[in-house]
Amino acid sequence: MRDAQGPEPTAVPLAMLERGRRARVLVVSGVTGFAQRLASFAILPGAEIQVLSDAPVGPLMLSVREAGRVALGRGMAGRILVEPL
Length: 85
Hints:
Layout: E1 12-13, E2 22-28, H1 32-40, E3 48-53, E4 60-64, E5 68-72, H2 74-77, E6 80-84
């Protein structure tokens, strides 16, 4: 059943997004140091990001509105849940 605000957002790992896709960060999981490191890149719950490059090997290149371009390893990207926009 849907509540008055609409359906629950569909959460997927950031690492699964394709090039060009935009998303909103929902959850950053991991130890405190990991969350703090991502916060330094403005990757926080509620932040809007876009995948600029998703080559099969190497980091994801992201556009983060507040921080500009950020390279993020796939292991790190797998611990960030996002809602595709």
